[in-house]
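Data card: per-record layout.
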Amino acid sequence: MKVMVAGVFDFLHPGHLALFRQAKKMGEIMVVVARDATVLKIKGKPPLFSEEQRAQAVAAIKGVDSVVLGDVEDNFKVLKEAKPDVLLLGYDQNVDLPALRAYLKENNLKTKIKRAEAFEPHKFKSSKLKKIFGV
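The structure for this 135-residue chain is written out next.
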């Protein structure tokens, strides 16, 4: 089974590792790393590390089978190309679910959408960690 996980992964932490472990229990993991331009558009500021650096860091994690960069114009395009069996969303990942479901239906994709369980969110949340470390 092919499981897709997507995100910025700018400040890797144990919460991300827990997400990858949950995905690995389901099958082969493909991680989609957001492009720099996408991060800027969504968050209003550039990531700390470049898309290439973030992709290399994720690829080095044990259990991750493949890493790809997302598409700047169409966040869902990678779904059409990879055709994963499962899209595992982070427990707090902000996704337009109606649009995502419509895209899957329009493209005749049978991808199941699942939410990961939170892993100590009071400690391991990127926004909290960035504040603690002043980044």
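Known properties of this structure: The longest strand covers residues 2-7. The radius of gyration is 14 Å.

See the next section for split statistics.
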